[in-house]
Amino acid sequence: MSARVLSLPGDGIGPEVVASARRVLDAAASRVGLALSWEEGLIGGAAIDAEGTALSDATLARARAADAILLGAVGGPRWDDPSAKVRPEQGLLGLRKALGLYANLRRIAVHPALVDVSPLRPERVSGADILFVRELTGGIYFGEPRVREPGRAVDTLVYTDAEVRRVCKLAFELARGRKRRVTSVDKANVLASSRLWRDVVVDVAREFPDVALEHQLVDSAAVRLVTHATSFDVIVTENMFGDILTDEAAVLPGSLGLCPSASIGEGKGGLYEPIHGSAPDIAGQDLANPIGTISSAALLCRHSLGRADVADLIDAAVSRALADGARTRDLGGRLGTGEMTEAVLRHL
Ligand code: IPM
Ligand code: MG
Predict the structure, then answer these.
(1) Which ranges in 207-277 belong to alpha helices (H)?
(2) CATH number of the domain that 133 lies in?
(3) pTM, two decimal places
(4) Residue 64, class by beta-carbon neighbours within 10 Å (0-12 exposed, 13-18 middle, 19+ buried)?
(5) CA distances from 11 to 3, 89, 103, 150, 241 (A)
(6) With bands split at pLDDT 50, 70 and 90, how would you rate the model's confidence at 268?
(7) Is residue 115 part of a domain?
(8) 176/213 same-domain check
(9) Whose CA is nearest to atom 10 of ligand 1?
(10) N or C, which end of the chain is more exposed by having fewer CB within 10 Å?
(11) Amino acid 1: pLDDT
């Protein structure tokens, strides 16, 4: 039986990086006789233009039916009108929520060959390997009420015990496959939701006596990320703190363009996307770094298709291409998106 993968390229550089990841994934899968059946759908601004909504019912139905989804990016200046009722981001947020993808895994690891590409000093980044577990379907991103009226606006940050528990539990489980250290990041000195978060994570930790738990306030965690990145193993945090800290941490390996992510929930299906955005300034120019999306395709194989063999092939090819000096412009090199893809394919 062939695996059904839905491709949602989206906007900006999304279509370029997804096309590149698809080539690499197809090539790796065919090495081991895995048949993939691809479907393509619209999301974000592209869907607004064609269908009037950022996520149509038809696309959502196909997303539910797929074994996994590979997504590029959503958004761009064309749809940035602040008063607009439909926004590209609604497509991505709606998909995460509808599919119950409550955990976003973003591993930030510094490739040895890229230590000098990082804007931080080599001794600060060398050996850094952090797994972020970002809560993805709660918090201020989804809380009600949400109000915008003249002179006043309201967003609501709400978490339930159950929402915190399941994502923290996952973080501890994942820590068992790593260095068994979890840092829970919150703002418990100010926010009630963070005090709930802290109570729940302490309770979850009782089930994992072999894993060390520490708490850190988000502001000081932001500093520690750039001063002592290697002191972290697993970081678990709420939705918006995770959004911000993972962009910050993506500086460590040298470029946001390198970093993949997996969004998973109770089911087998998951959503895989690079952590970068649609980068409209370089869209359509063959300049984007496809590695974040290629590595997301590897995660897709590992987590949703149960094909670690294919994932290992892809990860090894990426690693060898980087070790061999393949560099897009964000990494200080000259390769275009297509050339970088070729470099990975050559090492497959
Ligand atoms: C991300 C992005 C999204 C988010 C945007 C596009 C809604 O920044 O995946 O990190 O904030 O979650
Ligand atoms: Mg973000």
Answers:
(1) 218-227, 239-249
(2) 3.40.50
(3) 0.96
(4) middle
(5) 25, 11, 23, 31, 25
(6) confident
(7) no
(8) yes
(9) 243
(10) N
(11) 65
Classified as helix, coil or strand, 10 is strand
Q: What is the pLDDT of residues 150-187, one digit of tens each?
A: 999 999 999 999 999 999 999 999 999 999 999 999 99
For residue 327, give both structure tokens.
Answer: 């560099």
Bond from prior residue into 145 cis (ω within 30 degrees of 0)? yes
Q: Is residue 164 part of a domain?
A: yes
Whole-angstrom Cα distance, residue 21 to residue 344? Answer: 10
Sort strands 103-109 and 260-264 into parallel, antiparallel or unpaired. antiparallel
> Looking at the predicted structure, is the pLDDT value of residue 113 above 90?
yes
Q: Is the dihedral of CA 83, 84, 89, 93 positive or negative?
A: positive
Whether residue 102 lies in the annotated active site: no
92 Cβ below 6 A of ligand 1:
yes
* Ligand 1 atom nearest residue 273's Cα: 9
Please spell the DSSP secondary structure of 77-105, one letter per residue.
Answer: GGG--TT-SS-HHHHHHHHHHHTT--EEE
Q: What is the pLDDT of residue 6?
A: 98
The response to whether residue 243 sits with its C-beta less than 6 Å from ligand 1 reads: yes
Q: How far apart are CA 144 and CA 146, in angstroms?
A: 5
Identify whether 73 is part of a domain: yes
Q: Which of ligand 1's atoms lies nearest the C-alpha of 243?
A: 10
Cα dist. 150→87, 145, 154 in Å?
A: 20, 16, 11
67 a catalytic residue: no
